[in-house]
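Below is a filled-in request sheet from our internal design queue. Each sheet records the structural input a requester submitted and the sequence that came back. We keep these sheets so that new team members can see what a complete request looks like end to end.

REQUESTER: design group, bay 2
PRIORITY: normal
MODE: inverse folding
CHAIN LENGTH: 102
BACKBONE (tokenized):
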């Protein structure tokens, strides 16, 4: 499920990167775009697809929260440490256990 969500995000981001590179390449004089130009176009493309990206990140975030809660619930609860000196004491015939009813 996580992998599918990441693949969907990849389907959104790959075309953005390609369009940014191609737009920067068209503007360059020698056919080699500058990094700054690519980043400027990338920012524009991200702004144009902000809703789709945000929606996909929201789905991924919810999935991660769900998986984290499953991991927490499946973990064994820690047992409290019991101080046996409070409840067991040595007597004449062996050991005597504390009885809270007496």
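RETURNED SEQUENCE:
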């Amino acid at each position: 499920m996580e992998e599918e969500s990441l693949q969907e995000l990849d389907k959104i981001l790959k075309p953005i990167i390609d369009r940014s590179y191609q737009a920067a390449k068209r503007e360059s004089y020698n056919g080699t775009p500058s990094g700054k130009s690519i980043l400027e176009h990338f920012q524009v493309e991200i702004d144009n697809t902000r809703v789709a990206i945000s929606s996909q990140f929201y789905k991924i975030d919810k999935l991660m929260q769900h998986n984290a809660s499953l991991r927490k619930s499946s973990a064994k609860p820690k047992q409290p440490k019991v101080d046996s000196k409070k409840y067991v004491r040595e007597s004449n015939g062996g050991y005597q256990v504390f009885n809270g009813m007496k």
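SHEET NOTES:
- Residues 6-69 form one domain.
- The helical segments are 2-27, 35-48, 50-74, 84-87.
FILED BY: M.R.
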